[in-house]
Amino acid sequence: MPCDYGVDFGFEPEHVDRKSLYVSLEERIKYLHAFLEWTSEDVEHLTSGSKYLKQLIPAVVNLVYKKLLKFDITSRAFHTRTTASEEEPEDDYLTEETPQIQRRKMFLRWYLIKLCQDPTSMDFWRYLNKVGQMHSGQERLAPLNIEYIHLGACLGYIQDIFTEALMCHPQLSNRRKLGLIRAINKIIWIQNDLFAKWHLRDGEEYADEISIYSFGSGNKEGYLSGKRILGSSSESSIDDDQSSIASSVAPSTFSGAPSTHTTGSSRTPEGATKTSACPFADFARNNSSTETKIWH
Ligand code: HEM
Predict the structure, then answer these.
(1) How many whole angstroms separate alpha carbon 38 and alpha carbon 106?
(2) Mean pLDDT across the stretch 176-203?
(3) Which residues sit with their C-beta closer than 6 Å to ligand 1?
(4) SS3 82
(5) 94 in Cβ contact with 100 (< 8 Å)
(6) Where is the segment annotated Disordered (predicted)?
(7) Alpha carbon distance 278, 254 (integer Å)
(8) Could you give the domains of the chain?
């Protein structure tokens, strides 16, 4: 008697057209959404929690730039626009205080604000793809060639900062923390794909057809450069927590010099001992009812 392995013989897997993943950005995003189970619930969590994400942005920007300037291989890219050459820059290595880095911090700030905005339009994902493309050395004017290892590491670092800070939020309910972290992680992983795809050789047999399908919407190469990418900053919030965090607390904590609160985080900016990366630190210190390993 044949063994029943519980196989449903009538089952048909969903078809995914391989070529479309390479020649159509829309189809690629559709597939990633389906695979990662990106749903309206994710959108809802992002919309209602965007104010918490936005509070983290100054801290994220400062920490990311500290990190990028810490290693010569990434710091050099701000002189040479490439990580592929180990030639020493002619000028001194840049520091966080230099105007060039201040300006670049602004770009990253815009990007992160954009990340907290409406992800329901295709323009949102097109923008992420453009950021991927512009780091791949394929722009005709002033190419920027950042090898994938640094982009992946940088995204991982950003994800870690968001996760730590949101997990440690003293007042957000667990349900909202979970929803917000899952949603932002899905976006970060799609951004990761949109960085990686410009560096991989997968699907290269369709290379000639990519530009026709992926950029048919009027977005030209270099579209991002120098162009303000912010839309409306309106945000809705379904506040089911004990209270919302005063927006002045977190950004001001980190927008200048890094905070020196000794709240136990392991992420330690250079020169400061045991500084928490979490911009809600002040809030928690003043809120004795909060008990987490980070906060007391
Ligand atoms: C998480 C990864 C990253 C994101 C989201 C990101 C985002 C951005 C954005 C939005 C811009 C400005 C685009 C424009 O409007 O012109 C930019 C420019 C730039 N990025 Fe990145 N970046 C990432 C990683 C890196 C890394 C790892 C490096 C260096 C190793 C780097 C080096 C640069 C440089 C040199 C520019 C050009 C700045 C200029 O033209 O003045 N980026 N990046």
Answers:
(1) 29
(2) 97
(3) 68, 74, 77-78, 81, 83, 104, 107-108, 111, 131, 134-135, 144, 146, 150-151, 154-155, 158, 224-225
(4) strand
(5) yes
(6) 247-279
(7) 9
(8) 19-84+93-212 (1.10.490.10)
Alpha-carbon span 162 to 24, nearest angstrom: 30
Ligand 1, atom 21: nearest CA belongs to which residue?
A: 135
- 44-85: per-residue pLDDT in tens? 999 999 999 999 999 999 999 999 999 999 999 999 999 999
Residue 192 token pair: 């990761």
Pick the residue whose CA is nearest to atom 31 on ligand 1.
Answer: 146
More confident residue, 294 or 101: 101
Residue of minimum CA distance from atom 34 in ligand 1 = 78
Structure tokens at 234: 């309106």
Ligand 1: residue whose CA is nearest its atom 29: 74
How much is the pLDDT for 251? 30
- The pLDDT of residue 248 is 29
Q: How many CA atoms lie within 13 A of 33 on its CB side?
A: 17
Give the pair of three-digit tokens for residue 217. 């919407």
* CA–CA separation, 91 and 73 (whole Å): 15
pLDDT of residue 7: 65
CA of 108 to the centre of ligand 1 (A): 7
For range 177-201, the mean pLDDT: 97
The protein residue whose alpha carbon is closest to atom 43 in ligand 1 is 108
Calpha distance 89→79 (Å, rounded): 6
Ligand 1 mean position, distance from CA 42 (Å): 26
Task: Indicate which atom in ligand 1 lies nearest the CA of residue 158.
Answer: 1
Instruction: Report how many helices (DSSP H) and strands (DSSP E) the chain contains, helices first.
Output: 12, 0
The pair of three-digit structure tokens given for residue 212, joined into one six-digit string: 């026709």
Percentage of the chain exceeding pLDDT 90: 63
Ligand 1 atom closest to 112 (CA): 5
